Amino acid sequence: TNAHNHVLYTGLTNNLKRRVYEHKSRLGGSFTKRYNVVKLVYYEYGSSINSALLREKQIKGGSRQKKIDLINSAYPTWKDLYDEICAILPRGTEWMTEAATSNQCVMQGL
User: Fold this and answer.
1) What pTM did the predictor assign?
2) DSSP code of 35?
3) What number is the average pLDDT over the span 13-35?
4) Which letter does DSSP use for residue 14 in this model?
5) CA-CA distance, 69 to 67, in Å (whole number)?
6) Do 23 and 38 meet the contact criterion of CB atoms below 8 Å apart?
7) Rounded to an integer, what distance in angstroms lies between the CA atom of residue 46 and that of residue 107?
8) Does the pLDDT of residue 96 top 70, yes or no?
9) Between the CA of residue 37 and those of 18, 40, 42, what are the distances in Å?
10) Region class of 2: left (phi > 0), else alpha (psi between -120 and 50), else beta
């Protein structure tokens, strides 16, 4: 989301730490630059790219209120979770790439 939690963006990546960094550094796509999407407020793991794609479509197809309810159910403070994922994934890209390859681990964030 943006700093004021007005914009909701759903995306899919195999390296959440890198992708959030790109958004924060304004290296992301035109939508995220235009609306200043720099804050990770929700994420989840998928067991495969196919399940993650289905989940992404499910989230994107839901209403704004459903997305807000989803975020509130897991992270009601809407704090930026970037520091949390950096602490959990200290090796960053290497760990995520390995996990994505060996465990078919994919992440998506709101």
Assistant:
1) 0.77
2) T
3) 87
4) S
5) 5
6) yes
7) 6
8) no
9) 15, 8, 13
10) beta
